[in-house]
Amino acid sequence: MAQVQEFVEQALQLSTVDGCVVVAAEHTETNLRWANNSLTTNGQMSSRSVTVISVAGESAGVVTRSVSTADELAALVKASEAAARDASPADDFAPLVEPYDTDDDWDTDPATTSVDVFARFAPELGTAFKQAGKNGRLLFGFAEHEMTSVFVGSSTGLRRRYDQPNGRLELNGKSDDYTRSAWAGIYTRDFSDVALDAAWSALYSVVSGWAKRAAGPELATRLCREGSDRSGGQRGALQTERAWSGAGAIGLRRGGGQVRT
Asked: pLDDT above 70 covers what percent of the chain?
């Protein structure tokens, strides 16, 4: 299969209307899932989508498809052009953006992710399973990481690209009789800043504490966490509210967290 950048260039060459913009995205994803203190599934996926925006006069046609062959790409361009010719003029029509200087490395291969992103996280997860089992607790949840490289090309000559990583951890801790549970969730770019040991310790404290207190719908606990990104900038506070004893939320990163009631 051709490189995604080649698909952008080929689509632009196939265009026969007044203007064309092609947006191609290369997406890879990997994940781990667990239940009852054991890993249940893991996997890796990849996909590609191409969007062709055709401009005919002051009308536009937009079509997005999963494309893997030259024939599929040609059919996509034709469908977009047909949609543009059938469309009414756009009230917000504007000329396509002209090229400008950027630092984008257009020719570099798309960024990808793999199970290697969990190289440090996976052993910590195994340790958490053992600790949970010893203390009569059960861990459920998943970790997933995605990488999407987006390439934008225009008939004006504009070329742009952007690589977007996204990671997410959701961890649910339960008592072994399933009467108490707590939840922790966090966003991460690459799992290097995920403090699984801190998240598990906090979950254990919350689940254990609920056995000693009466709780009802009137109980609400706000759990706040403020962290810093790699450049030292302040992240927004992660705030969630627990409205009853059966669900909670904790957000923790490396460097510690703060729980306020």
From this structure: 78
Domains of the chain and CATH, by start: 4-242 (3.30.2290.10)
Residue with tokens 């607790």: 137
Mean per-residue pLDDT over the chain, rounded? 82
R_g of the chain computed on alpha carbons:
24
pLDDT at 210: 56
Is residue 142 over pLDDT 70? yes
pLDDT in tens, 196-218: 877 777 777 776 665 454 444 33
* Contact between residue 192 and residue 119 where contact means Cβ atoms under 8 Å apart: no
Backbone angles phi, psi at 255, to 5 degrees: 105, -5
Q: Which residue has better confidence, 220 or 201?
A: 201
CA 258 to CA 261: how far, in whole Å?
10
Partners of 181 in the β-ladder: 174
